[in-house]
């Protein structure tokens, strides 16, 4: 499988997500971030905005300059790990699990961007940053 084929697969999966779930995601994420910088609430809201932006980017993305071969073993392992994480930390949230897996796969294998938004402040010792596009 190449990156263009994977993109089409992710776009198809994205189009199959519940419209009700996506409407709730959009409603929650339209306001300004309310929590204090570095708080759990801040990080949840900041990550949610980033994910929403990347989700709509994925849906509109075309295959121009996408032809890299994808290691299917790494893709399957990645999907397994995302699903396992979501099963542990967000059990019984099927749509959130799919939404997260689709976005995370897009970020990792298509655009090669961080899973957490650059500039996200975790605590006084940790901030997510971008280095040469990664």
Written account of the structure:
With 134 residues, the protein is mainly alpha-helical. It has helices at residues 3-15, 19-28, 40-60, 72-89, 94-110; strands at 121-123, 126-127. A two-stranded antiparallel ribbon has the order 1-2. It holds the Pfam family DUF2115. InterPro entries: DUF2115.
Please outline the helices and strands.
Layout: H1 3-15, H2 19-28, H3 40-60, H4 72-89, H5 94-110, E1 121-123, E2 126-127
Antiparallel strand pairs: 1-2
Give a quick set of tags describing it.
two-stranded antiparallel sheet; DUF2115; 134 residues; single chain
**Class computed from helices, strands and strand pairing:** mainly alpha
Overall 3D shape: globular
Strand order of the largest sheet: 1-2
- Alpha plus pi helix count: 5
* Tally of separate domains: 1
Poorly predicted residue ranges: none
Cα Rg: 15 Å
Strand content: under 5%
Helix content: 55-70%
Mean pLDDT: 87
> What is the number of E strands?
2
Task: Write the H/E string, N to C.
Answer: HHHHHEE
Distance between the first and last residues' Cα: 23 Å
Biggest sheet character? 2 strands, antiparallel
Summarize the structure.
The chain has 134 residues and is mainly alpha-helical. It has 5 helices and 2 strands; from the N terminus they run H-H-H-H-H-E-E.
């Amino acid at each position: 499988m190449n990156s263009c084929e994977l993109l089409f697969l992710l776009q198809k999966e994205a189009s199959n997500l519940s419209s009700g779930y996506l409407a709730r995601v959009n409603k929650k994420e339209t306001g300004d971030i309310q929590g204090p910088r570095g708080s759990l609430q801040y990080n949840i809201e900041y990550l949610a905005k980033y994910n929403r932006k990347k989700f709509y980017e994925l849906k509109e993305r075309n295959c121009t300059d996408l032809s890299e071969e994808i290691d299917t073993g790494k893709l399957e392992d990645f999907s397994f790990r995302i699903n396992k994480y979501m099963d542990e930390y967000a059990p019984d949230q099927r749509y959130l699990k799919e939404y997260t897996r689709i976005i995370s796969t897009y970020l990792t294998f298509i655009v090669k961007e961080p899973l957490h938004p650059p500039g996200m402040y975790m605590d006084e010792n940790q901030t997510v940053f971008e280095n040469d596009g990664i």
